[in-house]
Amino acid sequence: MAADTNTWEQSAAFALDSQPSVERWVNNEHPGLRVPYGKGGVPASHLPDFIAVLLAGLRLLIEIKGQYGDDADLKAKAARRWTAAVTGHGGFDTWQYVVIQDPPALTRLLDELAPQNQPALALS
Q: Which DSSP helix (H) or strand (E) runs through 107?
C-alpha cells in the first residue's frame, strides 16, 4: 500500500494551523532549510517538509513519511544530529526532528508538547 503523502501533508498543514500550541509554521519548500547527510560516501541533503515554532519555545523540523526506508533512516539520523548540534550550540532555541508516519500522530504530538502539558518549573 502506498501512502498519499500529499494528502498527509495537507492534513499536517491543517493540524499546524488549528493547534493553539503552534506559534507559527512554514512549509519548508521555499525557505529550503536543508540538513546535510551522506549516502555511500556521497554528500546529500534532506529537506524536511515543515518547520514549526511552538509556544513552549521548541522548534520542530517535521517530516511526513508514508513509507520509512533506508534513505529515510539516514535522513532522520542526520536531522537528529543536526537538531542536537544546533540546540547544543546555544542561541538558536531548542530544536527537535520528528517523523510523522500517520496523519493523526502530528496532532497527538502537538498536544503532548503544548505548554500546559509541560512540567512546571520549580521556583527557588
A: helix 103-113
